[in-house]
Design a protein that fits this description.
With 381 residues, the chain is of the alpha+beta class. 61% of the residues lie in helices and 18% in strands. GO terms for molecular function: heme binding.
């Protein structure tokens, strides 16, 4: 028992350390810039090691507690471990860079993103034509299109439409002011993406299984209805920014917004519970503990849908943007009450409600704080 308690302290201690580092990193990025945060935190060996310690101690703790007997819980945590493994493989083996082509020019090399090293391609790439499609009746670009000859094959690359060959994926990035040249992003990650996506699929299956167990098919239906309604509304919008013209925008935003709505509801009921008598507080405790499942799983689904979308559009599924980082912090903070078998705090209704009230601050930081204080690629959201 003493060894199990020690493992528990290591696992949850590593999780708290990750949360502190992630929050601090967004402040470091704001003060010292993105490059400093990437070099000294996100891209450092100790940051990778910290995630490794969290993953290993969590899995060992699960085994010692014999939680593997609960198949859905095992799949859920195993999926998270596979996602971390995929991220590690990408970190260690992936190559990422840029190729700049003028119209009619042929190259067989590209420039590495981090150290400007020239890397070879196993085929020639020629820019045949670059074109810009505009919104009808306006001067606003609707899409940027590069027509390439890759080897002996003709292809077209545009925003949200990539081209893949022999494990190399090409993304439209920018273009020359005279519209006679194109800048393409190249990502070569033959192993990491497959491992990571396997984790995403297993995580989705585990979340659906737990939701079926906790809220039943009626609960799943009630959860799906507002998501579908919001998805339909967003899908009818016509954003002017080319990269936002993707069907994944509606899926990503709709599940995130419904998740935030549920988390706000949990916060309000937590306040009511703290101001109520014991019996009512216990009823609201059971309600909030149940609602936390769809709220958290929708948030997780929104984060990982966004990751897939980012991989399609920008060649990476995670960029440690401040909004991404705080969404991850929010997900991890709200995941802690699921571990009430290990943490006695969450078995007490009053302490649970206080925790939900304080956890709301991470959601507020994700939704508003990043936009108004930290900035970043998602600061407009």
């Amino acid at each position: 028992m003493a060894k199990v308690n020690t493992l528990k302290q290591y696992a949850f201690g590593a999780l708290i350390a990750v949360l502190v580092v992630l929050a601090s990193a967004t402040v470091v990025e704001k003060i010292f810039g993105r490059e400093a945060a990437s070099e000294y935190i996100y891209g450092s060996w100790w940051f990778v090691a910290l995630w490794g310690i969290l993953g290993v101690t969590a899995m060992v703790y699960m085994i010692r507690r014999m939680l593997y007997r609960r198949k859905v819980v095992l799949i859920l945590h195993g999926a998270l471990g596979i996602i971390l493994l995929g991220a590690l493989v990408t970190f260690l083996t992936a190559e990422r860079g840029y190729i700049h082509l003028r119209q009619g020019e042929t190259l067989h090399t590209y420039i590495a993103e981090n150290d400007t090293t020239e890397l070879s391609l196993p085929f020639d790439v020629k820019l045949v034509l670059f074109d810009i499609a505009y919104h009808p009746g306006t001067d606003e670009p609707a899409d940027f299109i590069s027509f390439l000859k890759v080897g002996e094959e003709m292809c077209k690359i545009s925003m949200n439409k990539i081209y893949s060959r022999q494990g190399y994926r090409f993304y439209q990035m920018s273009y020359d002011p005279d519209e006679m040249g194109s800048m393409l992003m190249i990502n070569h990650d033959p192993w990491g993406i497959g491992i990571t996506y396997t984790g995403y699929v297993l995580l989705a299956l585990a979340m659906l299984g737990l939701l079926w167990f906790r809220i039943g098919w009626r609960g799943l239906l009630y959860m799906a209805m507002p998501v579908a309604g919001l998805w339909f509304y967003i899908s009818r919008l016509n954003p002017m920014t080319p990269v936002l013209r993707s069907p994944m925008l509606a899926a990503h935003v709709s599940v995130i917004m419904i998740s935030y709505g549920l988390l706000v509801f949990i916060t309000v009921t937590a306040i009511i519970a703290l101001c109520s008598r014991r019996r009512r507080s216990e009823c609201l405790y059971r309600l909030n503990a149940t609602l936390l499942y769809p709220a958290l799983f929708l948030l997780a689904a929104g984060i990982f849908i966004g990751a897939v979308w980012a991989n399609i559009s920008w060649g990476r599924y995670w960029g440690w943007d401040a909004k991404e980082t705080w969404a991850l912090i929010t997900m991890l903070v709200y995941a802690l009450p699921f571990h009430k078998g290990s943490i006695a705090l969450f078995r007490n209704p009053v302490k649970f409600h206080w925790y939900c009230l304080l956890a709301c601050l991470t959601m507020a930081m994700t939704f508003l704080g990043v936009t108004y204080f930290l900035g970043g690629m998602h600061s407009y959201v």
